[in-house]
């Protein structure tokens, strides 16, 4: 977007030609011409055309195997190597790394893996949730240093913090 603004300034304020702007910026004259004629608010984007790869024909096979494996115990699931060997026996000629990249992307995408997904809200209603914890603190009481065990409570909605109970730690301080 910065380059587009620079090109538009050179053309409209500096009154430079497309060829001169292309020479100064190192861009193609056709690119300069296209960016100047485009509406001011548009941002240029490169659009890669979707093409089928070697693995595309085996996407359904891999997804079906991954969904079946997601419901099995962990030690019974097929590895990436086993899945690669399976589709290779069916005629796949691509590399193992393409298969593992696909498996990794599918698992991160959360496509019905069968694994339960956890959701932790970041906002809570009043009284809905709290956090409880223990700690050990040092305190000077009457000129004597004491170690205390303290129970802490923090309310999630208001982020209010309070020490519920504190008692001296048994044993030497």
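^ Assign residues to that structure.
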């Amino acid at each position: 977007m910065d380059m587009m603004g620079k090109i538009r300034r050179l053309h409209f304020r500096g009154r430079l030609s497309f060829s001169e702007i292309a020479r100064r910026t190192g861009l193609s004259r056709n690119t300069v011409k296209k960016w100047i004629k485009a509406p001011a608010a548009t941002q240029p984007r490169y659009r890669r055309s979707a093409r089928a790869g070697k693995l595309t024909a085996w996407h359904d096979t891999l997804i079906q195997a991954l969904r079946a494996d997601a419901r099995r115990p962990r030690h019974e699931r097929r590895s990436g190597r086993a899945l690669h060997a399976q589709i290779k026996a069916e005629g796949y000629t691509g590399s193992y790394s393409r298969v593992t990249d696909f498996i990794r992307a599918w698992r991160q995408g959360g496509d019905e893996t069968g694994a339960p997904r956890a959701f932790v809200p970041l906002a809570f209603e009043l009284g809905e949730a709290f956090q409880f914890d223990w700690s050990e603190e040092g305190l000077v009481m009457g000129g004597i240093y004491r170690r205390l065990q303290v129970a802490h409570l923090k309310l999630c909605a208001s982020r209010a913090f309070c020490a519920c109970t504190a008692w001296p730690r048994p044993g030497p301080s």
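The first helix runs from residue 2 to 12.
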